[in-house]
Amino acid sequence: MAYKYIPATTAALALMMVQQGAHAQQPATSGEPASGPGMERVQITGSRINLRQEQISGVGPVTVIDAETIQRSGAISVETLLQRLPSSAGTAGNQSSAYWTSNGYGTTQVNLRGLGIDRTLVLLNGRRVVSGGTGANSSVDLNMIPVAMIERIEVLKDGASAIYGADAVAGVVNIITKKAFDGVDAAVRYGKTDRGDGAEKSVDLVWGLRGERGSLVSSLNYSESGPVNLASRAPCSLFEEDGKLVCSGSSSTIGGRARLADGRRVNFNQDPNGNPRGFETYSAAKHAYNSNPFLNAVNPIKRIGVSAFGNLRLNEQVDLFTELMFTNRKSEQLATPGAIGVYRPIRIAASHPTNPTGQDLTLERRRVAEVGPRHFFQETNTFRIVAGLKGRLGDSWDWSASLNWGRNTGIDGMTNIINLDRVDATLDAATCGKSPMAAPCGNYLGYGNLSPAVLDYIHFTTRDHGGNDQKSFNAGISGELFALPAGPVGFASGFEYRREQGWRDPDSLIVSGAANTNAMDPIAGEYSAREIFAELSVPLLAKLPLVQSLNLNAAARYSDYSLFGSQGTYKLGLDWQVIPSLKLRANRSTAFRVPNVPELFGGVSEGNLTTTDPCNNWNTMDPNSAVYQNCRASGVPVGFRQFGPSILTTGGGNPKLEPEEADTFTVGAVWTPAKSLTLTLDYFNIEIDNAIETVPGSTKLSVCYNSPGLSHIFCSPSSFTRDPRTGEINFLSSQPANAARQRVSGIDVGALLDFSLLGWTSSLQADVSRLNRFDVAPFPGGEVIEYAGKITGGRGSYAKWRSTASLTMARGPWSGSYTVQHIGKAEDINAAPEDIGARAPSVLYHNASLKYAFGKATTLSFGVDNLFDKRPPYIQSWTDGNTDTMTYDLLGRRWHIRLGYRF
Question: Which of 40, 224, 715, 750 might form a disulfide with 710, Cβ 3.0–4.6 angstroms?
Fold first, then answer.
């Protein structure tokens, strides 16, 4: 029904704006349309209370990125802006990852404090946004939000579950769109790297109407970014050998690496003109495969988006508002040719006609390079519909009620995927090639031995389907309860209902395990939440010596989840204006994160994973050791031997997961020693209990059998069981569990100085973040891992110091900015101190932009990122490109030019 009526509402709004055109007002600079006398009220991120602008008080550390800053940056996607913030750390999806897999291929996110993309709540105009990706995802895909429609971005670096509900553990990113605009803005942008690749193009058209009875702003946006091959920045993968960095490659070779019955490891011919039955002893230096030419440093993406935001005055007290957004995203990733032997052993008898060795062999790895690289592809469609009413009750109360529906659907797939069942059929010498309907016979021992018929027979293209759906209803009221001697008491309260749903249906051959990729089960699940909240702002004291004002801020929320029961959170804060130039603030809050759909409902699957059983040959150990005593006590037979290096392990989702719980404390000061200078200092401390973590099976078994009397929780039957007759483990779980504990603390420093220099209106802004500690206990009793000052291969960088400083200047038609981003030194957590790449030095990136206005209508902008072409440091635990691509710039110097016209 929404498809029928919501667009009609938008059309009516447009008609009303045309009819009111004779009374149109000048373009507004604020994000809200004119609302008449007494309606100039605002709501800032971190509070639901609407107060008159002059009464706004800081509720916590908030960073604001305005439209002018966004335009100067030249960014065509939101994640570029957010991932440069000093408060961002760790990993998040972006285009500079070769596989770009985080939370679904092609998605991009923000990771505040490095606590994970799932612990940063992303809002659009103060309301939640549906998760994005290719199905059963857990965070917002920032690709769906057109940059040209953003008025500002407010980043609250504080726990805010009492205000906004679950997931606001590390903070909140609230993206505010333009809502009051009169005219048409058109802009085209083009950019490239210094090497002539990675072209970026965008076209944005924004038009708006504004009248006495409301406003309507619409946009059409297109952006496209081209690929950058990884080999152009990193010709090969580097590893240290004899104190030098040398090229190294994958052991999945194009000729095929095999282990013979006598234990020798051999590699088959890799020269197209060589002996097709030749083989020799395997040598990594000679035979290893260079993957970099078949990966991208930047993956291509195309986005098309349309949006409309309207506000219509129904009468003097009630407004109708709507938000309509639709985004289509197409993205691709380049991948190496597929390999066999990874997911299923390939055994070839000595008598097989293709085997030239005279021995039985196991083909451990064979990269089928004859067919070329694989291509991963995605196409997602995301829409968002919001419709609601808002109004006034008397002179001091506001109310609103709205329906919010967001839906994301996606198709993704991979080309040149190998059907392992068909590989087996081509190796069956008794049946292959015997009839026109039979499989052709395949020779996998040597590059170039596979015929076109075999290559066509074993390869296919996968297609997966999935999506996410979010429906919610929000109603709230805000205003002033009564007046105290120090001022009015602000109050807000409301009710929210939300239903989250996610699903993903992998290709049938992936589900069956026949494809040479990770087996996946279908995912489907949903949950709902009913919540009520209340917030108070109480002025305690005012106009006293050393107390210009003292306000108490309090909030509480009660949440009832269909799967997790009830959860309560609170927030308490003090805002003390000591003197006009000095403010002190402190906040204490609780927060929580509910398990997402894949964590809960990810299809349970089984696979043989490399795992060490501590009870292997236990009777030969020290009788006084905990392992000896525990293995004997649990009935493991004397002389027990582990059968093979792997154990059948259960993975996937865990429907028994509970919400994570967090406690956040922030305290800070805002000092304005002069009208043109503002300084801020904030301390933060976040503690997360029951954090969801996936613990490997080997770790669970080791911790259990080293605990006194099998007392650890990992000894429970939910973790593993043994066959009482043989002692073998017949059940082992590596499903996610509420097992971890995390603690993060640090300091944020900010400075803003406005001044005039030689007739130029200037502003200098700096933000610095110091990470004091980032400690993770992966499970109860486990050794604490200290991430502060470290770089990891999987979690990204946790450099202790990060900062950004920006100088902006304007004079007449000219304006420009110069920005310096600093990433502090860090150590590789997995490297020895003497290794090359064990330490990454401090890095500075310089970005500059210049704009000239040809009158009031036309502007021309030019910018350069990474002005001095700073190369990324070599990191031993690199993710791609021999560095941490989530932290450092792999592309080098690049430029962009933008032409804008307003009419």
Answer: 715
